[in-house]
Amino acid sequence: MAGNAIDQTRRMLSLVTYLRERPGARVADVARAFGISEDELIADLDVLPLCGTSFRGGDLMDIDTDGERIWWHNPDDVAEPLRLAADEATALLVAARAVATLPGLREGDRDALLRATAKLEAAAGEAAGASSRLSVIFESEGGVFADVDRAISERRRLWLRYYSPARDEITEREVDPIRLFAVGRTYMEAWCRLSEARRTFRLDRVVEIKLLDDASDPPPIELRDLSELSSALVQTGAEDPEVVVEVGPGGRWVAEYYPHDSADELPDGGLRITLRAPDPGSLRRLALRLGRDGRIVSPRELAASARDAARQALAAYGE
């Protein structure tokens, strides 16, 4: 059985040395030596020719097989010592130092990263000088990201103080994180214990976060299609057409998911939301999802097409 990606990476690194010392090695012998099937070995050999010693290309491994033997045509070229250009060394060092400052990073990982950085500095020599004059400052969401990532990997619950622009207030809540994703901004999808529902949180709106000892236990739910979430969360421009949507208390979540110009309170506890959309027609799906919890007010053409789509859906359901 094939292992995970880390196991495959380790095996392929060993394959490089093994094949360099055994030109024309038999596929069956190599597979037996590594304890894998011949099909798994061939899959590894399909990947190796895409590997090299620099992102600049031009130094890829020239490896092929006829199904019985394996031939590596340029082992001496690829085996030359790795040399980093000044810009490569600078990029690596700046990134390594920046990641090492992230709050929430495991101490063992931080120590390993700092040791690797010190070795890279020594190897880079003068090329490392420019990196010492550069730095990266992460937004506050960098620390939030690290805590959320750790909570997901360790299956732990999170406590948040979260700013809600729809209500212009900060609330405290416990959540069971489900996944992280990015659409312009970085978001966490989680089961919110305060509302007892699935919610999406923008990391830059998290005022404070704590990793709890309680186990994360979200109910079994179907993950939303990220393409649908992307259409809801995508950033819009001031030149895009304006759309006005009125929602009841059950539709207030629209102000959390959709970037908007304003969200005014209505007497029934709902919101009158003004937003912009590059393609207003894409909001018909929103109207269908809202059902009785909301309606499109303007533009009139969009409101009419949303009503027609709802009637057609109801007719199809009746049939």
What does this structure look like?
By secondary structure, the protein is of the alpha+beta class. It has eleven helices and twelve strands. It has helices at 5-20, 27-34, 38-47, 75-78, 86-100, 107-124, 141-154, 226-233, 254-257, 284-290, 300-318, and strands spanning 25-26, 63-65, 69-72, 156-164, 169-183, 185-192, 197-202, 206-215, 242-247, 262-265, 271-276, 294-298. The strands form three sheets. The protein has a five-stranded antiparallel sheet. It has a four-stranded antiparallel sheet with strand order 10-11-9-12. A hairpin with a 4-residue loop joins strand 6 (185-192) and strand 7. Helix 2 (27-34) crosses helix 3 (38-47) and helix 10 (284-290) packs across helix 11. The protein is elongated.
List the topology elements:
Elements: H1 5-20, E1 25-26, H2 27-34, H3 38-47, E2 63-65, E3 69-72, H4 75-78, H5 86-100, H6 107-124, H7 141-154, E4 156-164, E5 169-183, E6 185-192, E7 197-202, E8 206-215, H8 226-233, E9 242-247, H9 254-257, E10 262-265, E11 271-276, H10 284-290, E12 294-298, H11 300-318
Antiparallel strand pairs: 1-3, 2-3, 4-5, 4-8, 5-6, 6-7, 9-11, 9-12, 10-11
Helix pairs in contact: 2-3, 5-6, 10-11
Record keyword descriptors for this entry.
319 residues, alpha+beta, five-stranded antiparallel beta sheet, four-stranded antiparallel beta sheet, 12 strands
Strand order of the largest sheet: 7-6-5-4-8
Helical proportion, percent range: 25-40%
Q: Show unreliable segments.
A: none
Strand content: 15-25%
Rounded to an integer in angstroms, the radius of gyration calculated over CA atoms is 27 Å
**What is the straight-line distance between the termini?**
49 Å
Number of helices: 11
> How are helices and strands ordered from N to C?
HEHHEEHHHHEEEEEHEHEEHEH
Helix and strand content put the structural class at alpha+beta
| Main beta sheet strand tally, sense and closure | 5 strands, antiparallel
Global mean pLDDT = 75
What general outline do the C-alpha atoms trace?
elongated
Q: How many β strands by DSSP?
A: 12
